[in-house]
Fold this sequence. Notes:
Helices cover 32% and strands 19% of the residues. By secondary structure, the protein is α/β, with parallel strands linked by helices.
Amino acid sequence: ATLPLARDDNLSKRSRGKDATVLILGGGVSGIIAAKTLTEKGITDFKIIEARDELGGRLHSERFGEPGRQVTVEVGANWVQGIGGGEGQGPENPIWTLVRKYGVETRESSYYSNIAMFDQTGPADFSDIFDEYEHDYTELTVAAGARVEKNLVDTTARTGYGLINVKPKTPHEMAVEYYTFDWEYAQTPEQSSWIASSWGNNYTFDVASGGFSPDNQLSIDQRGFKTFIQKEAEFLAPHQVSLNSVVKTITYSGEGVTVTLVDGTKLEADYALVSFSLGVLQHDDVTWEPELPEWKTEAVQSMSMGTYTKIFMQFPKKFWFDTEIAIYADRVRGRYPVWQSLDHDNYFPGSGVIFATVTGDWSERIEALTDAEVQAELMDVLHTMYPDMTDIPEPTSILFHRWWNDPLTRGSYSNWPASFFQEHHDNLRATVDERLWFTGEHCSQKYFGFLHGAWFEGRDAGQELAQCINGGGCVHVREHFEEVRNARPYKVDDYNAGRRK
Length: 501
Ligand SMILES: Cc1cc2nc3c(=O)[nH]c(=O)nc-3n(C[C@H](O)[C@H](O)[C@H](O)COP(=O)(O)OP(=O)(O)OC[C@H]3O[C@@H](n4cnc5c(N)ncnc54)[C@H](O)[C@@H]3O)c2cc1C
């Protein structure tokens, strides 16, 4: 593809001797889409700095299984969630647009029908409870919407469930609640905002709320799901990307930024666009000189990072359920509750591959175990699911990614807790000294956690930064709140005055 030429005024604005006008830190979806947007706006003097040996970030495909029986599996993102663009649907999800553009092979994946069910006695049927909880989840989001209209405070999704009288106690109830909630947010209802989790769902899946559509597509492309973004990145010239480059320190002032890599290389630029995950920002893998202002640090530390772990196993042959998905109801909430079969007509028949998903605290727990210890726990569950089967073989391969301990992610995707305020979120996106810009899925108010959240944030940051560089003004974009105040509950007089009205 031919690139538009860099505009002369961009080049002349760049102080002499700098390595680029913009350093884009991180080459995931948001970094690449920001680069694409800058290019469309005539700014080509940027460089993407990426730690890994390829672009794509949390799109992470791996060849898995025994030689001769290998398949490409996705240890990171796997679904386009909310497709849209069709008759009676909302707008098209931009990830779906790219998936179609590059012919990435996907299959429709329906995770609310045709589910096998198990409990501690073996196969079980609790589909009535499942249907009830699916309905209850919708009620939870509707009740959250009603709170917004009345301007009522946010609380946890657990409070929300309590207020609509949903109080799971039995293993079956806990498993289906887990399936409708934690399996999406990678954290518990206690750890999640009632209102933000509801809008997060609606803006993606609910057409009436402006969402795309309720449909999901699962990538089975043997080039990897990452193909859609790596193809989209092919416009980049070699000098615009630096792989295997781990950022250690970001030094900034009103004049510009200096980025120091772990190998000591120093890169200077007018602006840095930081696309690292929220988890990376929360930990000390990257340091800031000077330290980030308190309003930024508070915003970063106030949102949360969920962890979502898929544990793949390959067996000599399939011995399990014929559906795509099974739910296992254990006495312990969150203990290997969701199983997905890839040895299925829709996916990779004959592959012998199945995977279990755990999230949140359970993910962090198993990251401390060895693969063999996790395998033993999974086999224990399979024996519980199939008590009469005496010849269940051991898996020939096992694979899972330790997202929580990965210094390039520190978790899987962001989640909005009840103690995280709108002003915090504005501060997450706000620029520092007009030189440090921020993007990534966690910056998306509507779509945090999703690939399309990363896409929209990359586009918006690219547009606003281009406007700033092109002389359209930097000052009034992405302003911050110096302090996030929540005085109301503590100002008793105001509160009483409000009540008297
Ligand atoms: C297990 C899992 C399952 C998921 N499932 C789905 C799904 O099915 N559908 C969906 O829509 N979303 C899903 N997501 C979320 C989705 O993957 C993310 O929202 C999206 O990929 C984030 O893109 P990003 O550009 O914001 O961040 P990233 O992809 O994290 O990009 C940031 C980049 O910065 C790099 N980096 C980090 N630290 C440094 C450093 N010090 N120096 C240099 N580079 C650095 C990283 O390597 C990375 O490439 C899933 C995520 C995970 C982990």
